[in-house]
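Lecture 7 notes: from sequence to structure.

We start with a single chain of 371 residues. Read the sequence below before looking at the structure.
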Amino acid sequence: MIYIVITFLSILLALPSKKIYSFNGIRDNKRSFLFLLPMLPFLFITIFRYNVGTDYMQYVTNYYSYGISENGFEYIFQFIINIAHYYKEPHVIVMLLGIIFCCFIFLAIYKYSENIKFSILLLFLTGFFFMSLTMMRQAAATAIFLFSLGYLIKRKYIKCILLNICTGMIHSSALIYVLFIITYIILDKFILKSKLINLKGIIIISICIFFSSFFIRSFLEFVTASLNIYSGYFGSDQDSGVSSGTHFLFGFTPFITAIITYQNKKLYLKNSTEEDIRVFNLYMTLQWLGFLFSLLMTIIPNGERLIFLFMPTIIISAPFFLNRTSNRYRMLSKLFLISSFIVSMGYYFYVRKSLDMFPYHFIFNKWHWFI
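Now the structure, written as tokens:
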């Protein structure tokens, strides 16, 4: 199938490559262009597809014709629509969002991943690439957020916040990243202070939030109605109140991978720097949020979107976690990660055929298709 072929082709093209950036700012200028090579297979089928993804027609018809609402904040997305109007081609919207997504996700992989090939595999196995073909704006915003994490680690907070304000101008739901960053800055500066995050604490918080879900929903309804943002989702057909085992697995799997690493904290703390601990805390927090939103799916309309705001962090964090897991548990953790994502992604996209990923159509000939 075309998705499997391009994934392995991308991994093959990544073989001569290595990480070109790092959190400490070291850059290999001679190899800085190599992130483009493994990106090309994903980019090709992203920008040259036709009617692949549930929301594809929404972008090339409704958004192209009407743009964003008058009160909308998504100015970058509107600018993309204006470019499409200039060329008189609706598909330009799909192409530009695809370029943003592919460039930033592969920059994030090359900048932060300690195992580039494994991260490319996870881009496919997590279903995040599939999501990018339908949730185009959200996926592009999430890719930019992943790229911005280096600024957060290096405490370049202004750059990080400004970049994530831009994500909100692509898709307003991404403004949650700005709230997360501000909260995390306070947490890192005044509570954690470069100490390892307390696992028992976040588990207790998770339990309390889960059993307070009724009050949380009431609060969300009040806030969205007051701000006139997303209030229409409550009570709509997207507010089913049904939890999905597949979506729970999407949020649960990365969090368990982080917990397995946490159990090796004595070994981890022995050889870790202050920056290592800060990176671990950041990754653990993001995977926890993905897990938390999977627990709250029943009370949040279209709740799977919130899972996919944070779960994709595992694409770059998994190699970090695995490299800091003892030999005894490393292979077990890796097998759990891969097998869980194969089950959840395979069932959701291949068995249920969710989000209209199949069959794949090329834009070159709108009447020809192949898998």
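The chain has a mean pLDDT of 84. Keep this in mind for problem set 3.
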